[in-house]
Amino acid sequence: MHTARVKACVLGLAGALFLGAAFCGTFAASKSKSLNALIAAAKKEGQLTVIALPHDWVNYGEMIQTFSKKYGIRVNELNPDGSSGEELEAIRANKNNKGPQAPDVIDVGLAFGPQAKQEKLIQPYKVSTWNTIPANVKDPEGYWYGDYYGVLAFEVNKSIVKNPPADWADLLKPEYKGKFALSGDPRTANQAIMTIGAASISFGKKYENAAAGLEFFNKLNKAGNFVPVIAVPGTVASGETPITVRWDYNALANRDKSAGNPEIAVIIPRTGVVAGVYVQAISAYAPHPNAAKLWMEFLYSDEGQLIWLKGYGHPARYQDLVRRKAIPAAIAAKLPPAQAYEKAVFPTLEEQEAAKKIIAADWDKVVQVDVTK
């Protein structure tokens, strides 16, 4: 936390040691005073409105409950299963609304951060741990910043699918007829959009060449293997959609939650392993701006970052936590082996934007099926 400032205190010349210590003490006191003022202002607002945060998504249930209890602020939760596109639309639709339907904060796919900034839907705020967030996953002006990442994996109900797929091409097998579904609308949901990009990579194309992924889904649909329903944990468990693609942290959390009833298998595919970063931002029209800033401070504190890590999401400040040996052994032991991520591809913003445009424009023409909730 503010490593450069700490080093300045430790490595200062001996003759200036007292002055350096005094400066660091003043800085720490100033920082503490600033945070206390923010806490007081947030408590006065009394509420935080979040959107599209399922409790089983990267441990958000614990995150929300801990924040609310810690600061005595009620958390109003909107549309838990909403997509990144729906989050931005909620801000647009509530620009002049200070009521409970107006979100204060959003958690969206990486490509949606710059879009929200361009549309002036979000406001800048740099958390106190700003310097430990990698530069390549944050807006330099503080409009948005990465929160966690994972890779796309197959989530399979083994009670129904005895022989789970090991790679993308396997999904075309006749034994999977009527069994595979996406986890969102591919025209608006980041997880579903990146799933199509992952399929493109699996078949030897670049992520941004989404046409290859669309053609694969066209084949899945024609084979009768694709179910045009948005897969959620309940539909996987019931067998309505026994195979889906989900971020590994969500799939692993669902596996733990099911406790073997049904048995859930989580498989990182052999090829087309795509990693995705999600980002946080504060609405430019937030009804509770101080609560929103305090929420960000909590998320990016060690406490908040470890809550995400307990939910199998690699938090933005992961390397900083590792460097300071701040990750408890019990949490580290539950993480998937590092080699599972060796082939992971992190699409750039430009690549994501290119794929997103192709998918939004051509899904209906190529795949010709409407994905519904």
Automatic annotation (TrEMBL):
SUPFAM superfamilies listed in its UniProt record: Periplasmic binding protein-like II
Signal peptide segment: 1-28
An annotated GO cellular component: outer membrane-bounded periplasmic space
Coiled-coil segments on the chain, per record: none
GO molecular function (one): thiamine pyrophosphate binding
Domain of life: Bacteria
Keywords assigned: Signal
One Gene Ontology biological process: thiamine transport
Pfam families on file: SBP_bac_6
Protein name listed in UniProt: Putative spermidine/putrescine transport system substrate-binding protein
Organism of derivation: Hydrogenispora ethanolica
